[in-house]
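Troubleshooting log. The previous structure file for this entry was overwritten by mistake, so regenerating from the original sequence record. Sequence copied from the archived sheet and checked twice against the printout by T.R.
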Amino acid sequence: MTGASDSGMRLDSFPRLLRRNATRFGSSPSYREKEFGIWQTETWAETHARVRDLAVGLAAMGLARGEHAAIIGTNRPDLYRAMVAIQSVGAIPVPLYQDSVAEEMAYVLDHCGATFVIAEDQEQVDKVLEVADRLPALRKILYLDPRGLRKYDHTNLHPLREVMEAGRRADPRFAAMVDEAIEAATGSDTCVMLYTSGTTGRPKGVVLTNDNIIFAARASSEFDRLTRDEVVLAYLPMAWVGDFIFSMGQAYWCGFCVCCPESPETMQSDMREIGPTYFFAPPRVFEQMLTSVMIRMEDAGPVKRWLFDRCMAVARRVGPRLLDGRPVALIDRIAYAIGDVLIYGPLKNVLGLSRVRVGYTAGEAIGPEIFEFYRSLGINLKQLYGQTEASVFITQQPDGEVRADTVGVASPGVEIRIGENGEVYYRSPGVFREYFRSPEATAAAKDAEGWVATGDAGFIDRESGHLRIIDRAKDVGRLADGSLFAPKYVENKLKFYPNILEAVVFGAGRDHCVAIINIDLAAVGNWAERNNIAYASYQELSQHPKVLDMIQAHVEAVNESLAGDEMLSGCQIHRFLVLHKELDADDGELTRTRKVRRRIIEQKYAPLIAALYSDAASVLAETEVTYEDGRKGVIRGELAIRNARHWPRRGERAAA
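Regenerated output below.
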């Protein structure tokens, strides 16, 4: 474990960790980036030199200690280096979601009082310039990609590479300022400010210190025995705490290599070339991978489909047992080895997961069927539970104790307790210092003893000692008959089906549950093509009778499985409709991390929900949408409402 021989060295900031990495293993790779189809490799020594040049250049431009500098763009080594360069002058990096519209950026940039913005390209520069007159603190905009920016007013607009070159030639007093700032930094200084996804309101600026991040990075690296030989793929939003921990915190603590794909569109093929050994993805990514697999298998011939089904039946029975080190009969080992040659190995290679030693998913609950599919292939996929406010880690699953229905045990250094109302609380050295400029929100989330309210309902499993999360505490409720209502659990079961992209279930205080469903255009479009179903738009495909029949079959299969769950059998869906548009972050329906904004959907689609609870066979929907260029429009459509068969609970008769 890197760091074990670092006794006596101060490793309480990223600039100091970078200096250690450049000294101890300067020739080892720090970053790989694919440009024009070729992987470019950078060493830790080169990273250290480039960060220093940029830091001196920023100091010469006037970036001062305590100021905030925003980072906007996709995963690029230049932008990761920029965060450490900002820290090297004593300033605070604030990554923003690159797909945010200008209005969303305006709020964050104004709220944090950003004086500098480092943007990836013309698109991001344009969004900042659009709202610049509302940002009184903003002084400089730096950009990485110069394409399209040649004729812009460059009074306060500068190429990032020129700032680095200026740093190399700058007056020595600016280099001395950087050295002084690095030496003055302490563990209690702010490391980064990350904004929450804003599921219930305006995003909050979470202030995380060097001690918070470096503790979480060190403890989690030791938990999974990470070394500087790991290879990770950085593709998740840089504004998300998970990317900051994996691509910055753990990478700098361990000294492993971070690889940046050429573009979001090439991520999957780039992943196959890199072959990460340590991989994190939210459930949606694993769902998309599974959807692509199922689409390919549906297109395959009958012999290949038969072979896939037979081998996967063996994998589901044997794969998780092998991963956990449990006894497996010789005949099953042989069958699994044959399946690995014929199916599992090639499939993992196609997905880019052949070399994964440790994989994690978090952000939302993953469907148990999806989770078990990957573990059956021999991929050591585990769940963790965390929050931005915790520097990610609250719980993790130890090897050999991985279960689909829990999120593991308390991470090293973390304490967990369950409140009287079932809400989960935690405290640890990774707990955030405060919400920026919001003492009331800080006091509401964190008490005087450091306990943080997660907002999630859960309990400790008596048998295993693992934490089980039921749902968001505010979303867990009761049906009119008093039975438990946990919508996220049902939604995850629905999203196991590749044809269902998103689902939102309603039922609190009602006699029964209803659902609004999004189809997955790629999966359903592929199915339509194979079945000679013509369509001209997402809206037309979503309302095709055969598509509705297929979705109804999925809903009824979920109902049948829920009927056997004593706790959640009341959550069976009685009526549903398929929405005529995808839920979209630009329309305020999802967060930038693709979490459903349930309350907004409940308000926006109130007429549809009312129709679901009536006897209507259809409902006219008029919905405002936001186009890519920011224009607004309205789409209208008559949406069919279907009744779904549900299974009896105690004393009930089956209904059609």
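The CA atoms of residues 188 and 406 lie 33 Å apart. Archived copy saved in two places this time.
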